[in-house]
Amino acid sequence: MALNVETLSNLERRISISVPLQPLEAQIKQRLNQVARTAKFSGFRPGKAPMGLVNQHYGNQVRDEVYSAAVEKSFGEAVDEAKLRVAGFPNIQHKPFDAASETLEYTATFEVFPEVVLGDLSKVKIERPVLEVGEADVKKTLDVLVKQRVKFEPVKRAAKKGDRVNVTLKAFMDGEEVESTGDNGIDLVLGEAGRMSAFDDELIGGKTGATKKFDITYPEDHNPAQLAGKTVGYEVTFVSVSQPVLPEVDAEFAKSLGVEDGDVEKMKAEVAESLKQEVAKRVSAKLKEQVFQALVESADFDIPRILLETEINRMMQTTQQNLKQRGADLANIQLEPAMFEDQAKRSTKLRLLLGELINTNGLHANADQVRAMVDVFSQSFERPADVVTWYYADHKRLDEPAALATEENAVSWVLSQAKVTDKKVKFDDLMGNA
User: Fold this and answer.
1) CB count, 10 Å around CB of 36?
2) pLDDT tens-digit profile of 228-275?
3) Taking the mean position of all CA atoms in its chain, how far away is CA 367?
4) How far is 380 from 269, CA to CA, in rounded Å?
5) Rounded to an integer, what distance in angstroms lies between the CA atom of residue 59 and that of residue 48?
6) Rounded CA separation 81/78 (Å)
7) For the CA atoms of 356, 357, 362, 365, what is the dihedral angle to 10 degrees?
8) How far apart are CA 286 and CA 279, in angstroms?
9) Among 69, 245, 346, 359, which residue's beta carbon has the most beta carbons within 10 A?
């Protein structure tokens, strides 16, 4: 086998390969003999047809199969000999197989993986969020849990902020009705997020049976855009007004959170422990985010186009599936590859960097680390032991926990190299409640 390697660009290569055909003739003959044993022809018992007839019917097919296998094998040997790491599939071009005489000549154009060199991570600055869960945080969480279990009871007074009103509604634009609930009332909690405060302000003071008309002018940057800058007239009829009734933080409340004996102090301790676990997850996520960004910024190299296109396609498919699950009409949504290119570049670059970091420093997760990750997964289920058994029943199921554990090793390694400083943070800021 003769070969010649050309460098077309930083990552693109072309190999010209010449494969002698004589050694392949024996393979073709052997394959035809195998076919002849089972081939069926009219007038002949299986395996008794003349080789000339077998060759006439199957010769071209067998030759093409043998030549294709020779191309695949010789390409693999060529890139090994040239010490090239191929990214994606090669574009192979050759003359028709039946035109080959003494040699089979073809060219293979492909991309190679870039040389990935990590930057100086000792100069990277990373801030580790620090937060001690206190009584105030537990109380704030309990307040949220209490509000989630709110009940409403009808009242005869005028509506105020925090009340739930049931109303029928009509909306008008330019004098024409554009929306109506008909006779079906809708529930609105006055002051809740998701609506313009000006709308709820108009409903405060309304009483059961009353009707109120008012106009709302939406800002120019309002979402949805069809209302941006528009004035909408509303006609609202109050069907009922109900006030919130919050449950007491007592034994019954504790039982509703899974504390069987209703011990309120035990409930608070469990809430505190749950918060500590969530804080640890958030801190870990913040650190990982900073580490990944540091890795991406630390190195500069070209990304194989084939890997980038694969990642773009994956992102587009994921987005389409998510939109479909949300009930979106995909016929009216046009996704373009350019919309995902920047994100795909970052994720592909990060994947290459992590691979280099993990392989160079031997950071693949060991069995104990994988098991620890499986245990973490199992804790969110009612019967953790059954979940662990399920994972280990098929070792392919361990791929995900193994990958995450390995990723954690990589993050820890970078943190050991970087300049890490602690930074106190507020509970709401870390939890995203601000």
Assistant:
1) 19
2) 899 999 999 999 999 999 999 999 999 999 899 999 999 999 999 999
3) 26
4) 18
5) 17
6) 5
7) -100
8) 10
9) 346
Q: What is the mean pLDDT of residues 174-183?
A: 91
Q: What digits encode the pLDDT tens for the residues 122-137?
A: 999 999 999 999 999 9
Local confidence band at 433 (pLDDT 50, 70, 90 cut-offs): low
CATH number of 150-245: 3.10.50.40
> Exposure string (b/e) for 82-103, b if CB count within 10 Å is 16 or more?
eebebbeebebebeebeebeee
User: And the tokens for 294?
Assistant: 């540091």
Cβ atoms 220, 229 nearer than 8 A: yes
How far apart CA 116 and CA 349 sit, in angstroms, is 9
State the residue for tokens 């991309």: 111
Q: What is the DSSP letter of 104?
A: E
CATH topology of domain 124-131+276-431: Trigger factor, domain 2 (1.10.3120)
Kindly list the domain boundaries of the chain, sorted by start residue: 2-112, 124-131+276-431, 150-245
Which stretch of 35-39, 201-205, 357-361, 374-378 has the lowest confidence by average pLDDT?
35-39
- 100-155 pLDDT per residue, tens: 888 888 999 999 999 999 888 999 999 999 999 999 999 999 999 999 999 999 99
Reported pTM: 0.75
CATH code of the domain made up of 2-112 = 3.30.70.1050
The helix or strand, by DSSP H or E, that contains position 429, with its residue range, turns out to be helix 427-431
Closest Cα partner for 203 from 176, 251, 243, 235? 235
